[in-house]
Amino acid sequence: MSHSMIKICLSLLFICKISLALDNGLALTPPMGWLAWQRFRCNIDCSNFPDECISEKLFITTADLLVSEGYDKFGYNYVVIDDCWMQTNRTADGKLQADKKRFPNGIKALADYVHSKGLKFGIYESVGSKSCEGYAGIAGHEQIDAQTFAEWEVDYVKLDGCYTDEQNMNKSFPQFGKYLNETGRPMVYSCCWPFYQERKGINVNYTLVAQSCNLWRNYGDIQESYDSLVDVFDHFALKQDIWAKYAGPGHWNDPDMLLIGNFALSYEQSKTQMALWSILAAPLFMSNKLSTIKPEYKKILQNKEVIRVNQDKLGIQGKRIYEDQGIEVWMRPIEPTKAEYYSFAIAFVSRRTIGTPFLYTTTLNKLQMKNPFGYKIKDLFDVNSNIQVLKSNSTLKAIINPSGVILLRADIITQHEDIEKHLNEFYITSV
């Protein structure tokens, strides 16, 4: 990619944000927590899978582990049920009801337990006549369902888009959000609206989406494979100039759940997902079995410096800037800032699969990092790395493992200091 094209790509990171957003004061940084779907799907076979079926036991155990394993201290504070929690029929007075065998104490009791752990509780429904797995949907019961969620003290609502006409979503999704707000209970509103319209070739009104929802799914479900992960972030790169400008405090693009700690991703690939989800300002929802996560994967999920990038208060979604020699460079403007200069998170993502690490060389000048006093740079996955001070003409050499990542934080220096004593060349190595 030419120098001029890199400059154009970087300039697109600073497109003005939309000023209108869902006015509920929630999700001012990307929400974080645990969501059942990717790992547990619609497993209702509690006889053969007593610890993995969709039941109150699963969510109580998860809430316990979020606290006992310290995830809550890093910001993972939502426990969210997905599909298959409800019965196919409603009560005589038209209310949703949980499956009585798998949720014998009901949803309110489960929400109370989650709250007792200092966590927040989320629930799933679909905008259509049925949920995606064929259970009761909200169509025709929107107002009573919003009120029911408030009575159950729900904190987060994920609304899917099955069993309805995609053309009607510009009315149905905002209307349900209005009913949620009218209850007076603060509930983060997660919409699957754009995905359903995008796949049908309907032109999505993202201004309306961002005014109506706190976060929204743009693309299909992530699956348990590295290929699926690559497909998701490739699609986000393809659509980045359309989508990124709608992300910001209170309203986020959602590339779906974290696969980290499950079956498919290697250690290197897990770091890649965590890095890119932070660059993308994506919601961080684990979908895993917390009791079986290996220590090295837990360490990725609890990397406070990477989470700090994800939770940056500027709320600017990063982008893929260019590709070179099988290496992708992704950048996100972050705090601190000074005048026209931003700090950055920078991810060097290897798409190379040859079985040896690759040395990639660039300069801060090529990355259009022009702060005259330079940048303090640190490798966020290497806890033993030292902070280095680099100027725009400094060389940056990254040694990146196959399908791995190097994630850097580059904080601007806001006043003059003696940088001649620092190295003018900075090596970073995957660990």
UniProtKB/TrEMBL annotation:
It is found in: Lysosome. This is Alpha-galactosidase. GO terms for biological process: glycolipid catabolic process; glycoside catabolic process; oligosaccharide metabolic process. It is an enzyme of class 3 (hydrolase). Its EC number is 3.2.1.-. Residues 1-21 form the signal peptide. SUPFAM superfamilies: (Trans)glycosidases, Glycosyl hydrolase domain. It comes from the Eukaryota. One of its GO terms (cellular component) is membrane. It comes from Sipha flava (yellow sugarcane aphid). The keyword Lipid metabolism applies. One of its GO terms (molecular function) is alpha-galactosidase activity. Homodimer. Keywords: Disulfide bond, Glycoprotein, Glycosidase, Hydrolase, Lipid metabolism, Lysosome, Signal. Belongs to the glycosyl hydrolase 27 family. Pfam families: Melibiase_2 (PF16499), Melibiase_2_C (PF17450). Residues 315-404 form the Alpha galactosidase A C-terminal domain.
